[in-house]
Each structure stands twice: as C-alpha cells, then as structure tokens.
Design goal:
Blueprint: H1 8-23, H2 25-32, H3 38-59, H4 70-91, H5 97-118, H6 125-145, H7 152-174, H8 180-190, H9 192-205, H10 212-240, H11 242-247, H12 252-264, H13 271-288
Helix pairs in contact: 1-10, 1-12, 2-10, 2-12, 3-4, 3-8, 3-9, 3-10, 4-7, 4-8, 5-6, 5-7, 5-12, 6-13, 7-10, 8-10
InterPro entries: AA-Vitamin_Transporters, EamA_dom, EmrE-like
Protein name: Membrane protein
Membrane topology: Multi-pass membrane protein
Length: about 290
C-alpha cells in the first residue's frame, strides 16, 4: 500500500516522540530492577499497560478486530509486549545500558529488512547505504563503549533484536488498517492470559523492594514505553512508512546514553558527539531518499 504524503510531517514527529519514549526504557528498566526481579518487572509492566489499554478500549467501545488481524496482533504481542522487554531485562541484569544500546542501534536496519520481506517495501540504494552507515556507526560506538567483549547478555540482546523487529514490522502494517493505539492495545490485552499468572508467580518467587526508583521505573516502562510510546510510534510508521520510521531509531542509543548519564551516572566518552553527528547525517539522508 503506498504511503500518503500529506501526513509526512506529523508522522515523522509521532515516530520521533516514540523514539524519545523508547530511549528512556533501558534506564527506567535499570531503575525497576533495583526493586523487582526480571520476571516480575516484565510481567507486571505488561499487566499494568494492558489495564490502561483495556480501559481505553472499553471506554471508547472499540469493537474487536477482524479475525484476520489476530495473527498479526499475536506477533506484535510476542515481539513487543513479551519478547523484547523480557530479553532486554534479562540482559540488563549483567549489562550496562550503554552495551544494551547496541540492540537498539541495529533495530532500524533489522526492521527495514523485516519490512522488505513482510510487506514488500523496496527502499532505494541510497537509503540502504545510509542505513548501513548509520547502523555501523552506532554499532561501533556501543561496542567500543562496552570494551568489545561478548557476554551472555549479548545472546539475549540479539534475540531481542529479531523479535522486536518482527513486532515493529507487523505493528506498522496493522497500523495502516486500524489506529496505532488499538494495535498495541489489543496486543497487550491478548497477552493478559499469560502475563497475569506469570506476574502472580513471579511476585511470589522474587523479592520486591519498593523504592522511588523502582516504582518510577516500573510506571514508565508500563505506561510510557509499553503503551504511549508505541501508540505514537505505530502511528508514525503508518504515516511515513516502516523503513523510514525505523531509521529515526538510529538516534535512540545516543539518547539512551544521555539519559544514562543523567539518571544512572554512567560515564559518557568524547566519542558520543562524533557518533551523534554521523547518525544525524544518516537520518537526514534516509528521510530524503525515496523508499
């Protein structure tokens, strides 16, 4: 389906707001892990987000999606609601947010590849050149920040990369036929039969220590990252196309590093502004290249 051009500006803004929301996910998860176990944090955040989404769906009397869309919603739920949060949370138990940002740096390229396979998009050679350059710059920066060592956390991160790209691609496709907030809303509700019992079991098995950081982190990943951020993100993808929206995420690792310095007191090297400049150039090229 061709992308409408009359909403490109608004679509780009919405996708950018989604990226900003997502850039806070890793620092907020690190805060949440101060008081919750990994399984508790992921399950409870999904349940809370589903309660918010379900309340909105009920209040607005939104009808059930067509049966043909449920498979796609299941992919969104498995990739974005469950897979990515769980895998990255497990990784962040032993990885810094700077190292974990490598998965976000590779997400734009992986999402564009998934889009080409799933929805038949064919970005131009200029688009791919800029996308690969941006991904390489982000990858080099984040690997350098982590010392170049591969750890067990990397297995979780690369698996998270694949499942999230699949969820983003399917969510972007569905957002062309239904509002973006309904895509993530129904995906969250669809996961409730699994997340509620897992939350109950995890809370009984893992110790919980309520602090200002842990509660704030939980609330942000539930309401901000898991629901509100995905609403504007899917709307943006529907307006400007999955490949171009995904390239805005090239800025996400750098934003995450800024939040990590401000919120987690992590050290930021002088390589950051150089990488930021390279990434911004790549984003500008991908946004102008015809897809």
């Amino acid at each position: 389906m061709p992308v409408r051009r009359d909403g490109r500006g608004l679509g780009t803004l919405q996708a950018a707001l989604g990226v900003i929301a997502f850039s806070l996910t890793f620092p907020a998860t690190a805060w949440g892990l101060e008081g919750f176990g990994p399984w508790s944090l992921v399950a409870v955040r999904s349940v809370l987000a589903a309660v918010i989404a379900g309340g909105c769906l009920l209040a607005l009397r939104v009808p059930l999606p067509d049966r043909r869309h449920w498979t796609g919603l299941a992919v969104v739920g498995g990739g974005v609601v469950l897979g990515f949060p769980l895998l990255t949370t497990l990784a962040l138990r032993t990885s810094t947010t700077a190292h974990a940002a490598v998965v976000v740096g590779l997400l734009p390229l992986t999402t564009a590849l998934m889009s080409a396979l799933r929805v038949g998009s064919r970005p131009s050679r200029t688009f791919w050149t800029a996308a690969l350059a941006g991904a390489a710059a982000v990858l080099a920066f984040t690997v350098q920040q982590s010392g170049g060592a591969l750890t067990t956390a990397d297995v979780y991160l690369f698996a998270a990369l694949l499942v999230c790209a699949a969820g983003y691609t399917e969510g972007g496709r569905l957002a062309r036929v239904m509002p973006g907030w309904q895509v993530i809303g129904w995906a969250l509700v669809l996961c409730l039969p699994l997340t509620v019992p897992v939350a109950a079991l995890a809370l009984s098995a893992e110790p919980v220590r309520l602090t200002a950081h842990s509660v704030t982190g939980l609330l942000w990943v539930a309401a901000g990252s898991q629901f509100l951020g995905l609403i504007v993100w899917y709307r943006g993808m529907a307006a400007i196309g999955i490949p171009k929206a995904s390239q805005l995420q090239l800025a996400q690792p750098l934003l995450t590093l800024v939040w990590s310095v401000l919120l987690l007191n992590e050290h930021l090297t002088v390589a950051a502004p150089l990488t930021a400049a390279a990434v911004l150039v790549c984003i500008a090229v991908t946004q102008r290249a015809r897809g």
